[in-house]
Each structure stands twice: as C-alpha cells, then as structure tokens.
Write a structure and sequence with these properties.
The chain is about 30% helix and about 30% strand. The protein has helices spanning about 20-25, 30-45, 95-110, 125-135, and strands at about 5, 10-15, 55-60, 65-75, 80-85, 115-120, 140-145, 150-155.
C-alpha cells in the first residue's frame, strides 16, 4: 500500500501501513474501536487498489505525537465517501480535528470521480458537528446509524 501524506500548518496526516494497522489493532483496548480497525484492515486487503479509502489515516503533530486518526469508509460507486475521525482526549479543543478533516476532505474531493464527502455524528456531539461546519459541510436533514448526516460536495 502506498503511503499518502498530507501536511498542514501543525499536522501531518498520513495513511497507515498494514503493519501500523496491525499494531493499532493489537494495542487497542476498546473492543468497538478494535473491531472498526479490523474492518478497515480487511477493507484494505479486499481493495488493495483503493486502500487509501479503507485504511486508518494517522493524525500526527509536527513533533511526531499522535493526536488521533481518521478514515474514509470506502469509495462508493456514486462518487461519495464517508469520513470518520477522532482526536485523543488530551489533544481535543485545539482545532486539530478541523485541520485534519479539512486536509483529508480537500484531498478526497480532488480525486477523480469523487463528488462528495459525507459524515454523521452522534446527536449531542456538538464539537464534531462544529468541526464539520468549519470544514464546509452542511446538514442533509437526514440521520444515519450514528445520528445527523452532513455533506460537502465538490464545488
């Protein structure tokens, strides 16, 4: 799997290798998150030519400290991709999610055939909703499994 690396003012956001993903799975204490990482790894193995749309993207501060991660949940035939993200508690409230999501969404919308990026948040997660708004997402008025859905379409 080729590595994709996005540099922002304060962050480097890059695709995890197979080995990095396996290490994350082995070290993750949260069962739900471990399952999600396993699904992502399986997606990269099932779609090696589109691994960047399934793998974990690591969010790293310029001093090499891991601040969180994000992922796309595959690339759909209609040109849509869903993004998910999380920042470790000790790094929240500093704008890192907005910076990382903004860079990843710009990258995604710059790919051929990608028409929009979607996301959903838990209903009460106003911080995550604010990240999406700052990144140019708009509410769709619908809800998914996790809560309200948002979309950012290619301009």
């Amino acid at each position: 799997m080729k590595m994709i690396k996005l540099d922002t003012a304060r962050l480097t956001v890059y695709t995890a290798s197979y080995d990095e993903m396996r290490k994350m799975i082995d070290e993750e204490p949260d069962g739900t998150l471990r399952e999600a990482y396993l699904e992502m790894l399986q997606g990269t193995l099932d779609h090696p030519d589109q691994a960047e749309w399934y793998t974990v993207w690591i969010i790293e501060l310029k001093d090499k400290t891991i601040a969180g991660d994000l992922c796309f949940k595959g690339l759909n035939e209609d040109g849509s991709a869903e993004i998910g993200y999380g920042i470790l508690p000790e790094h929240q409230g500093r704008g890192y999610a907005t910076e990382a999501v903004g860079a990843a969404v710009s990258w995604a919308l710059g790919r051929p055939g990608v028409t929009r990026v979607e996301a959903e948040t838990e209903p009460g997660n106003t911080a995550s909703q604010r990240v999406l708004e700052k990144c140019g997402f708009v509410p769709t008025g619908t809800a998914g499994e996790e809560g309200p859905r948002f979309v950012k379409a290619r301009q």
